[in-house]
């Protein structure tokens, strides 16, 4: 025990003596460690959130086209709409006994870039975005009255837009904010939703009827153009929806509806299961993750190389130090161990600081992800990489220490005891 | 009782021309426990090599070195290191203190590979050599004489049976040289360690009852 303390004592003194190179190599290890952990953790959490996060629906029914576009547009509120389907199609699935819940979405407007989605009150009264959990409004807010120009706002949108209960706003036409495209209709905020850490936090919900009645909106549910008039009821045949969000009574229904709608039908697309559709996206962009991971591995390798180089370069000037230690009775393997421990210590310190680097990278990245998608990534969520990366990097440090350690091991005592002037 | 016995010791170095140049040829040398012997010799006579052979830092070509009953010459390097750590203290002409360590830490380093660190004894030794108020000073913050005293304390830190001193006053002025030798002799005596000192300084050699001419010991 005494000896082990002694070796660490020598290591600590040596690192202190070479403080600058120790600091630089430690920081380079920290950067590599932080990068590796951040890239892997962000990827894992993103995949998990996009493929199995708090979505609450089993499938999306929309216009004929790409299921991925449909899911991105309706579930994650990204991408453009592939088109609309008639209201009658919504009515058909809603009355289908195999379907537990069908909620229509009508998209096409925004408020300062935040999407406005027209829907029914079923979204608040029947839909569970997570098992057993429904949307709830903060404080004294409430859900909108479907017959009024009222809005309920997701928590992130409310925070960013500075909107609260009682405030009013006028929607802008289109999914992309354009100052010149403001509608005349004014909506009043009646509720702000509690955070759900899902894409819904970025959405402004209004009654679907309101979307139909926004100035300039043309309905083509029947195939013919129809413009809603104030005070006049809109016939169902003219109504249309961007998508219908579906929850099935059991998973087998998905197979059946997939066969009916996707394989036999030609009018609509059923994006099912949503997780699998999104997993397909990650498969397609998998190469990008691999490149990011490769870059971070390279940073780690370069950092390990810097450990090797900095210690190796110091060996020549430290030969006398080793000779003195040897003359005091230190064995060759002791000197070898000291150098390997030095390398391992630098790697270990780097790993510790690497967690701070990870925190910084992750926090920045998750802020971007949240702003873009509404998905909240959890900094403290455990990932195996938090254990695997530190162990591997410290082992890499040990390996990097072996070459200079061997050089130190070879130090001849007698010829190095005399100072070189 | 004999602490150190050297018989038929030989050591040669390869010269730049490639031939072997014999530098040590000691038929017989011995010293008893607690004894203090000075060896006189000019530069290049092989004194340092002789001490390095006794310390096990160098491997002899031939012959025997027995320290405290243990045969040094037949041992591998690792075992020689162990013997050196346990039985031998070494005072160098250039002190060989480690620059990044304080005086106290340098003395503790002397203990690390032998009996183990005993901080109290390390402090006691530094107080004994008059550096009680300089324990946390680094070598660069000490005078040459003070550095020498740290080296003396370090050499005795492992409670060795034999202290080897290689021109220990070579870097000191006359006044400090005499003081240093007196201190080395006293501290070895107090700790029951034998002292083998090599020097070419007649003032130093004059302090020893037994001073031998190295040329008579080493028959090259």
How would you describe this structure in keywords?
heterodimer, A: 421 residues, alpha+beta, ten-stranded mixed beta sheet, two-stranded antiparallel sheet, 13 helices, 52% helix, B: 220 residues, alpha/beta, Rossmann fold, 8 helices, globular
How would you summarize this macromolecular structure in one to three sentences?
The complex is a heterodimer of chains A (421) and B (220). By secondary structure, chain A is of the alpha+beta class. Chain A is built from 13 helices and 14 strands.
Flag low-confidence runs of chain B.
Answer: none
CATH fourth-tier homologous superfamily of chain B: P-loop containing nucleotide triphosphate hydrolases
Number of domains of chain A: 2
Q: Give the proportion of residues in helices of chain B.
A: 25-40%
Helix fraction of chain A, binned, reads: 40-55%
Distance between the amino and carboxyl termini of chain A: 38 Å
Task: Give the biggest sheet of chain A.
Answer: 10 strands, mixed
Topology overview:
The complex is a heterodimer of chains A (421) and B (220).
Chain A: H1 2-17, H2 19-52, E1 59-63, H3 67-74, E2 85-86, H4 87-94, E3 99-111, E4 114-119, H5 122-125, E5 128-130, E6 133-134, E7 150-153, H6 155-161, E8 168-169, E9 172-173, E10 187-192, E11 204-207, H7 208-213, E12 240-241, E13 243-248, H8 251-264, E14 268-271, H9 274-284, H10 286-327, H11 332-373, H12 385-409, H13 413-416
Parallel strand pairs in A: 4-11, 7-10
Antiparallel strand pairs in A: 1-13, 1-14, 2-12, 3-4, 3-9, 3-13, 5-6, 7-11, 8-10
Helix pairs in contact in A: 1-11, 2-9, 2-10, 2-11, 2-12, 3-9, 10-11, 10-12, 11-12
Chain B: E1 2-14, E2 20-32, E3 36-40, H1 47-55, E4 62-67, E5 70-71, H2 77-87, E6 88-91, H3 103-112, H4 119-128, H5 144-156, E7 162-166, H6 174-190, E8 194-199, H7 202-205, E9 210-213, H8 214-217
Parallel strand pairs in B: 3-8, 3-9, 6-7, 7-8
Antiparallel strand pairs in B: 1-2, 1-4, 4-5
Helix pairs in contact in B: 3-4, 3-5, 4-5, 5-6
């Amino acid at each position: 025990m005494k000896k082990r303390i002694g070796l660490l004592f020598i290591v600590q003194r040596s690192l202190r003596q070479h403080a600058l190179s120790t600091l630089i190599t430690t920081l380079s290890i920290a950067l590599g460690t932080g990068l590796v952990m951040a890239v892997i953790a962000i990827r894992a959490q993103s995949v998990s959130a996009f493929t199995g996060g708090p979505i609450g629906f089993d499938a999306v029914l929309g216009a004929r086209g790409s299921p991925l576009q449909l899911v991105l547009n309706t579930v994650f509120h990204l991408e453009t709409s592939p088109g609309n389907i008639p209201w009658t199609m919504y009515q058909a699935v809603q009355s289908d006994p195999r379907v537990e819940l069908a909620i229509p979405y009508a998209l096409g407007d925004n408020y300062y870039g935040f999407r406005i989605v027209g829907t029914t009150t079923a979204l608040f009264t029947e839909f569970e975005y997570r098992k057993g959990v429904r949307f709830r409004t903060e404080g004294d807010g409430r859900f909108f009255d479907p017959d009024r120009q009222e809005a309920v706002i997701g928590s992130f949108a409310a925070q960013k837009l500075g909107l609260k209960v009682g405030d009013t706003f006028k929607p802008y036409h289109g999914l992309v904010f354009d100052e010149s495209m403001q509608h005349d209709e004014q909506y009043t905020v009646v509720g702000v939703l509690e955070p759900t850490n899902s894409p819904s936090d970025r959405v402004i919900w209004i009654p679907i009827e309101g979307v139909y009645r926004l100035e300039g909106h043309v309905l083509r549910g029947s195939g013919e153009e129809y413009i809603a008039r104030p005070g006049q009821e809109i016939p169902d045949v003219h109504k249309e929806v961007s998508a219908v969000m579906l929850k099935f009574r059991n998973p087998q229904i998905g197979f059946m509806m997939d066969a009916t709608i996707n394989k036999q039908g030609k009018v609509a697309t059923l994006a099912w299961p949503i997780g699998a559709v999104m997993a397909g996206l990650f498969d397609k962009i998998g190469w990008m993750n691999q490149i990011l991971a490769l870059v971070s591995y390279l940073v780690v390798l370069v950092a390990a190389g810097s450990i090797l180089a900095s210690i190796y370069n110091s060996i020549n000037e430290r030969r006398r130090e080793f000779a003195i230690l040897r003359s005091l009775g230190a064995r060759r393997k002791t000197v070898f161990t000291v150098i390997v421990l030095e390398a391992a210590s630098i790697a270990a310190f780097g790993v510790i600081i690497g967690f701070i680097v990870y925190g910084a990278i992750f926090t920045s990245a998750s802020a971007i992800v949240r702003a873009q998608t509404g998905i909240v990534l959890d900094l403290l969520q455990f990932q195996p990489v938090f254990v695997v990366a530190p162990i591997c990097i410290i082992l890499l440090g040990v390996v990097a220490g072996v070459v200079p350690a061997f050089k130190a091991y070879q130090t001849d005592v007698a010829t190095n005891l005399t100072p070189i002037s | 009782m004999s602490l150190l016995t050297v018989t038929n010791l030989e050591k040669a170095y390869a010269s730049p021309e490639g031939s072997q140049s014999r530098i040590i040829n000691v038929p017989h040398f011995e010293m008893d426990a607690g004894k203090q012997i000075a060896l006189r010799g000019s530069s290049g006579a092989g004194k340092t090599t002789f001490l390095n052979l006794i310390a096990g830092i160098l491997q002899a070509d031939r012959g025997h070195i027995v320290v405290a009953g243990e045969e040094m010459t037949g041992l591998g390097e690792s075992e020689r290191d162990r013997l050196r750590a346990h039985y031998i203290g070494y005072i160098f002409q250039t002190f060989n203190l480690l620059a990044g360590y304080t005086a106290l830490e340098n003395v503790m380093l002397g203990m690390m590979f032998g009996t183990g660190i005993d901080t109290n004894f390390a402090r006691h030794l530094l107080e004994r050599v008059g550096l009680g108020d300089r324990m946390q000073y680094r070598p660069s913050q000490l005078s040459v004489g003070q550095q020498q005293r740290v080296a003396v304390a370090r050499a005795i830190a492992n409670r060795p049976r034999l202290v080897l001193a290689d021109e220990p006053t070579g870097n000191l002025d006359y006044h400090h040289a005499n003081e240093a030798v007196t201190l080395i002799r006293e501290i070895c005596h107090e700790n029951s360690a034998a002292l083998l000192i090599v020097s070419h300084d007649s003032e130093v050699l004059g302090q020893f009852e037994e001073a031998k001419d190295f040329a008579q010991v080493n028959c090259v």
